[in-house]
Amino acid sequence: MSVEIYPERLDKATQRALLADLISVVDEAPFFLPRMPRTGKPFSVRMTNCGSLGWVSDVAGYRYQPTHPETGRPWPPIPERLLILWHEVAGISAPPEACLVNQYAAGARMGLHQDRDEETFAAPVVSVSLGDTAVFRIGGTTRKGPTRSLRLASGDVIVFGGDDRLAYHGIDRVIAGSSSLLPEGGRINLTLRRVTKFGDCKGR
Ligand code: MD3
Ligand code: FE
Fold first, then answer.
1. Which of 125, 136, 157 to mutate to test the pocket of ligand 1 (most atoms within 8 A of CB)?
2. CB neighbours (10 Å) of residue 135?
3. Does the pTM exceed 0.85?
4. Among 19, 55, 148, 171, which residue has the fewest nearby CB atoms (within 10 Å)?
């Protein structure tokens, strides 16, 4: 078990500053509507990315790529305050390569899945929640078996590493009106990830 929870790790002022950073990111890399591989069924979550690689999904499959699927431009850089946060909580010296930005409007959800499109699972995934509280579900490394439910509130930071890096997880629902951070309501989740293998030099 290796889930580290930092409730309200980001105070309100920092959440607002991060939101301003994200407005610049979305200005350069607008939210796109991902689609399921093969079927083309749209997700209920909209996405964008920052970093050298971004996660995308369309009929051709799930993958990481260096450019936005609609504009063809490179993803903007990961905001400095997220790089600092990663170095404070991730426990590795290699920087994150991908920051996926998920936007949940009212009614959006994300089914139970594993994150396994990365070349390495040695680095943790760092998640930052902003806006309305989400009902998050996490299980084990097989699809069957028990799951537990956790609430992710604005400013919460969670680090999923070790045995839990390949845990099944998803978002059951978002609780409308639970935060006033986002003017339009809803929720934004950031996931910082390492995609390619890295040389480890812990503590240096
Ligand atoms: C546990 N996002 O983008 S963040 C995803 O809130 C994703 O938008 C959800 O699942 C969201 O893939 C959940 C929490 C999270 C992220 C990655 C994990 C939990 C994780 C990777 C392994 C185990
Ligand atoms: Fe995930």
1. 125
2. 15
3. yes
4. 148
- Looking from the CA of residue 169, the nearest atom of ligand 1 is 1
CATH class entry, domain 3-193 = mainly beta
Per-residue pLDDT tens for 97-154?
Answer: 999 999 999 999 999 999 999 999 999 999 999 999 999 999 999 999 999 999 999 9
Residue length of the chain: 204
Do 35 and 44 form a contact (C-beta atoms < 8 A)? no
Ordered by start, the domain boundaries in the chain are 3-193
Chain segment 129-142, per-residue pLDDT in tens:
999 999 999 999 99
Q: State the pLDDT at residue 203.
A: 46
Q: How many CB atoms lie within 10 A of CB 13?
A: 8
Cβ–Cβ < 8 Å for 47, 101: yes
Ligand number, closest to the Cα atom of 125: 1
d(CA 42, CA 37): 10
Q: Name the one residue in this structure whose structure tokens are 């390569």.
A: 97
